[in-house]
Amino acid sequence: MVSKQRIANNEQRGNLCIIPARGGSKRIPRKNIKDFLVKPIIAYSIEAALKSNLFEEVMISTDDEEIAKVAKAYGAKVPFMRSKENADDYATTLDVVKEVIASYKDLAMAFDNICILYPTAPFVTAARLKEGYDHLDTNNAAIPVTEFSFPVWRAFKIEAEQLAYQWPKHEKRRSQDLETLYHDAGQWYWIKTDSIQDTLVPKKTAPVVLNSMEVQDIDTIEDWELAELKFQKMFSKQES
Fold it and tell me: Which molecular function term from Gene Ontology is one that the record holds (predicted)?
């Protein structure tokens, strides 16, 4: 682990990893601690964070005692439980982060940088976390992104049960002439604590571009099964 440094008022400075993992997932019950192949899915995030040696503390923000127990078993800390207010379906990641920062302040602890690492991100690696952290030398934040698999400029909308182009002017343009757009990979956010205001994507946010095999949304059982297949394929390539 990174060595701890102390300043006035016993405040701890350095990097904090926050893994937000509430207990109320509905589409995939107990999603955050469901076994992904050989171990609970949250374990992959915890292990990547610990392996990176970037953090003074790797903590779980949860309202759920079972999630807390599993997280501790894999080496994470649970210094306090999440409030009921920030454990419902309407609480945002930003709400959770602000609560964690305030709770650490009550413990006379603060951190220079924060990495919000999602608990259902088994493709995360210590190397990618380090790549994101290195961007903070010249940026306020860093986020992993990946290209949309289809040109969004040719998106359809449905009006009165009929298809229509969202942007008709792009219908006849060549794909290679359309601007490449990216979406959030849904894995982690690095951000300087002082840059956290009303967004986790402040000015001067650097991209870390991932290939499509490193990214998989996991919102349904079908997503979960696809993620396991992709993970196994990636692992077999690394072994060969």
Answer: N-acylneuraminate cytidylyltransferase activity
